[in-house]
Amino acid sequence: MAHDLPPLNALRAFEAAARLNSVSQAAEALHVTHGAVSRQIKVLEEHLGVALFVKDGRGIKLTDAGVRLRDASGEAFDRLRSVCSELSRDVSEAPFVLGCSGSLLARWFIPRLGRLQADLPELRLHLSAGEGDLDPRRPGLDALLVYAEPPWPADMQVHVLAEECIGPVLSPHFAGFQRLQGAPAKALLGEALLHTTSRPQAWPTWAVQQGLDPTAIHYGQAFEHLYYLLEAAVAGLGVAIAPQPLVADDLRAGRLSAPWGFSPTQAALALWVPRRAADGRAEQLAQWLRAELARQSA
């Protein structure tokens, strides 16, 4: 149609050349070749049916039509730059809402929140806890920190932070603590093991890795969430199983012991960011989380 806008790439090339009064400088500013800018200007002139530049010695000069279009396009691009800058500033000043399980939040993230704020003072982080009901695809959540197994969702930018390693833990206050120290892994088949309904596969996965029959596991008290499970273990109520980062502080303080160590699973701790909302803050947070996990395991 006669009233359609010209190709935007052509307008962009013309605006840069007219503003800088140089095709070469426009090419440099747009990170393209001199020939590419010249071709786009030619496309624009053919679309409009008028000449926009004429030769002026070794350079170029705007025609009357070119001056009119320069003023109009310059004003339009200036407005676009201003609005885009405002939008970017709004995003950078808005809180970055991170969702994660309450167990991960309470047992790992909150104890390190002060260090995160000191290392990334410009990141305004808002934490949202949930158990299985957090979806970064929904409005109000910018990213999700989660233990999960690949394949990863196609609509997510997934930052893999560390492989998951799980293992049994027990407190020195547990009645069978001394008896189990130094005992082989199969000794746990005689225990009523604490477990969580949110991760029912944890004990069977570990048993298979140890060459044990998962059907021989004897389950004791169940807890809805991992946080409660680990609090019960710390209180000496039995043997629990958990990802290593969530008990690292307890192991260091002597509140828990891990006589059989930790074994990797197929899962990983990862930061999920919707591709539609990915920005530099997510990458910055992922780098910090990765470094913090590495520092903890060193």
UniProtKB/TrEMBL annotation:
Domain of life: Bacteria
Domain HTH lysR-type: 6-63
Family of the protein in this entry: Belongs to the LysR transcriptional regulatory family.
One annotated GO molecular function: sequence-specific DNA binding
One Pfam family this sequence matches: HTH_1
Organism this protein belongs to: Pseudomonas taiwanensis
GO BP annotation list: DNA-templated transcription; L-tryptophan biosynthetic process; positive regulation of biosynthetic process
Name by which UniProt lists this protein: HTH-type transcriptional regulator TrpI
Record-linked InterPro entries: LysR-type_TF_proteobact-type, LysR_HTH_N, LysR_subst-bd, TrpI_PBP2, WH-like_DNA-bd_sf, WH_DNA-bd_sf
Keyword Amino-acid biosynthesis: yes
Keyword Mitochondrion recorded: no
Keyword vocabulary terms for this entry: Activator, Amino-acid biosynthesis, Aromatic amino acid biosynthesis, DNA-binding, Repressor, Transcription, Transcription regulation, Tryptophan biosynthesis
